[in-house]
């Protein structure tokens, strides 16, 4: 049995626990949170055996094999570094750290210590996204000419909407580019096999003063009736990016968390010189394939319709759609397969490790610099 400790029981912590409870040979043994009541409630809801007072108790527990770091951004580096010191394997939320130097240190330290690592870039684990990656990488699209896409939400639409992600002390130099942008750029690099090498970014704070609840607010929670204080917002809820890929192809990306009616609407499109591919989270079981001289196609998620290397991620018969929890589960299964078997899963495309998290921090670092200097910025070479 592989014993797991989950640190952080806000929105994403229970998502991790639900997926872990579906993996054979894995047990969530302990949880902790800065809010003890939230940790106790989570433990009761998911039948977790132990609730620790703080994360150091989990790290010092010799029976815990793996740490899931589900804390705010500012704690990713310190907790993960200490977990590696205790020789715990680590699966972290994104971004990997607050700064590029921290991310580099974690990636190097984990490799040196032989730690199995993972980062929750879960959107790449929808079955048809895996299928798109296989097809684009084997050349079905031809040469990639351009890419584009968006990621819109509305959970920060009102001045009364609030999250720790809007605070520099908790989130770092960026809110939405670090949060949603990291997912989107991971998808682009994952599907194309190309790297983002240069960026031009524009950030904007759309609601400069917000009403911060005096009590803790979990992500996506509405807290309009809570007692509040006015807080000046210093980081962005909007970002637009022009970029270039390593083959010279141009791209564009826009994201915003104040778009009424858009709940979690992400889309990315790959345009090659043979055909096009597109995926939208609101229709997550469909892969759109565009043609010039014949009818367009829509591939529906089904194990019998996918490439043999990706069919295993579609665990239900066609017409029975998988969802967000299943994408997280697919990622976790690959992570724990490495722990159980001592080797990477037999798929065509590598899973997301701290190396992927480090790559995304390079992009984020360039985005922040570009916004501040109002110019194109090269992404640091790998």
UniProtKB/TrEMBL annotation:
Gene3D superfamilies recorded: Dihydrodipicolinate Reductase, domain 2, NAD(P)-binding Rossmann-like Domain
Coiled coil spans: none
Gene Ontology terms, MF aspect: nucleotide binding; oxidoreductase activity
Record-annotated Gfo/Idh/MocA-like oxidoreductase N-terminal domain positions: 2-117
Cited InterPro entries: Gfo/Idh/MocA-like_OxRdtase_N (IPR000683), Gfo/Idh/MocA_oxidrdct_glycsds (IPR050463), GFO_IDH_MocA-like_dom (IPR055170), NAD(P)-bd_dom_sf (IPR036291)
Record carries keyword Oxidoreductase: yes
Annotated Pfam families: GFO_IDH_MocA, GFO_IDH_MocA_C3
All residue ranges annotated as the GFO/IDH/MocA-like oxidoreductase domain in the record: 130-277
Keywords: Oxidoreductase
Name under which the protein is recorded: Oxidoreductase family, NAD-binding Rossmann fold protein
